[in-house]
Amino acid sequence: MEQSFMQSAMAMGAQSKKGFSRSIAVERKNLITVCRFSVKTLLEKYTAEPIDDSSEEFINFAAILEHILSHRFKGSGSWFDGQRSFWDFIRLACSKVPNNCISSIENMENINSSRAKGRAWLRVALMEKRLSEYIATALRDSRTTRRFYDEGAIMLREEATVLTGMLIGLGAIDFSFCLKGEALDGKSEAVIDYTPYLKFTQSYDYLSDDEDGQSVDSSNSDDSVEHPYIPLVTDEESWRNKCRKMEQRFKIINAQKGYLEELVRLRESQLKKVEMENKKLTAGLEELQLQSQKEKRELENIILELQEQLMNLHFHSDQCEKTNKWPGNMLMFHVDVSMKRIGIPFKND
Fold it and tell me: Which InterPro entries match (predicted)?
């Protein structure tokens, strides 16, 4: 009876653990998917005017990213630390980013709570066009990441790498934020609005090449079925709207292309600087090695000469012992010459 009870308890525990793991996996999948939609929405919205805090698309994106960075976060470390947020992780893990904004965020007088500082950092990183760089640098510090996140967190999984790739495209957008106001008070919870993505349908503008080919093939066949997501373009105004959307999408892609090209040029210039510095260090090292070898040979010659002089002194000493005469002047001369060779002044009183 007791054995069967233990077996059933273990089975229930295993099932519960499996269900918990599935829940965490679904959370990760949902957050990454909705983040992808959010980034796409921001890119579609952006034209020439900077995006600011009044944009609903940005508000939703900020909430999504805050949920991602807070997924399976360990919270307060001890009773005197207080309530922590993802900012405490970013502050440590991103400290090695060149010319980072961490100290500037820390010194802001109107922002006190950890959550508010995290939200301010997100906005500054977007204005700097370096959000992806910050998160990628933080992920490389695996020790700090494991210190702040529990097992199963997005930041500890391969989804984090997908996230950094998605955020690169935001460098093509100009953001402008005021680091004050209700958005940075840190008191209100970030709430994700899923309704824009629940209503999302595949439009003709964003069909992939494969889908375009399939739709053309199906339209040529006798028993073709109309694609449920392709709107029927029947008037001139609809064609104009479609052209405007395509033109806007072209501008966005072109802006992303320019940003990525600039990023590549920056990395190439940094690589050239590192290579030049490496060449200088290599040349300096070779010069030091040659100099050390030269000094070594000189010291070896001095040692050999001193050994020879020492042997001569021993020989003369033996001769003097036999004749009871000590060549004092000769001894002083040899010592003086030897010490001068090794750089030690010698005075003969």
Answer: Run_dom, Run_dom_sf, RUNDC3A_B
